[in-house]
Amino acid sequence: MDLNVADEDGESIGVRSEPFPGAVFDVVAMCASAGGFNAVRDVLSGLSADFPAAIVIVQHLDPRHRSVMAELLQRRSQLQVRQATASDVLAPGTVLIAPPDRHMLVNRDGTISLTQTELVHFVRPSGDLLFESVAASFLDRAIAVVLSGTGQDGSQGTRAIKKVGGTVIVQDEASAQFSGMPNAAIRAATPDFILSVEEIAPTLEKLVTQSAG
User: Fold this and answer.
1) Is 65 annotated as catalytic?
2) Catalytic status, residue 153
3) Which listed residue (26, 33, 128, 155) is catalytic?
4) Phi, psi of 25, deg, nearest 5
5) Which of 23, 31, 49, 80 is spaced 20 to 30 A from 119 at the CA atom?
6) CA dist., res. 6 & res. 99, Å (int)
């Protein structure tokens, strides 16, 4: 069943699908660039096998080479990790990673779209586009996580997440190998949490499962 959701003025801001069982938040969207692989690995390795939300990840990768990121992360994670395809549907405990040189969007029915439209802030895939699609599709049941990276990808998307009542987590400067993206996100939208990389997984577990059911 779909639920119409309104903002504080009573105007409709979208449709929220029926939530995943046992989850307060349905989807966690992560964005990372330079130095981000280790941060993503550390977050995923800290999540339990029964983590009840879906996870989607944009990591800026060299488009000239086939990515083995999913395979490498799977070795350290209890979750199911794979590179996204256009036929994928979000599922609890599943991690989907954007392929190199493809924007990844999440649709309101939980399906994945992959596009090769123009670069956004000089990158493809774009964390901004991912976050904006997640905000439109899951509203206040979405979490955005901005990890290590240069540039400002993800900053506009965090504003979209905050606008619909979602939650924003940013890696702190001390634990980020490159703090450009986290700092841009902090300037763009007041994060709900600014955390060391070691604190992010436990915080996600608590947020997603608190008072669920």
Assistant:
1) no
2) yes
3) 33
4) -115, 140
5) 80
6) 34
